[in-house]
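Researcher: Sit down with what I've pasted below and flag anything odd:
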Amino acid sequence: MSVHWGSGWLARCVARVLRFPAPGDAVAVQLSIDARDGVLHWTRRMGTALLVTEQWIMNGLVFEKLGPVLCGFRVEADAQSLWYTQEYAGLRFGPYSLRLPRWLWPRVTARVTQAGSQAHSQVDILAPWIGLVLRYEGLVMHVHAVEDAP
């Protein structure tokens, strides 16, 4: 997986504060997804960084929460791809959410495209007045976990 930060000093500062994975062209990635109480818990290990989010469906949108930041996406698909179009951004603390005005939204775009038995994934995260903060993209393959025999 390739990981890139924005080129400005402020973008790099934000990426460090948010503990985003360090830039690199061949960053090792592990993903685990656990479902609990109607919420998917995504744990992405990218290099030495751990990126943990929660996802759920509500009102026809897929919501994803990273820390207090909450984004809602409309998911569209064709025969080869899924893409996520952002429709909501807010802050969430416990059961309470505060919708952000559009000019304050972090902008997140994501697309997953079939590539044989693998999937090509690209995610861009942009911040207002800063631009690109993080982009990661590359091929992802499904690996079955093997449990030790008793």
The chain has a mean pLDDT of 90. DSSP finds one helix and eleven strands in the chain.
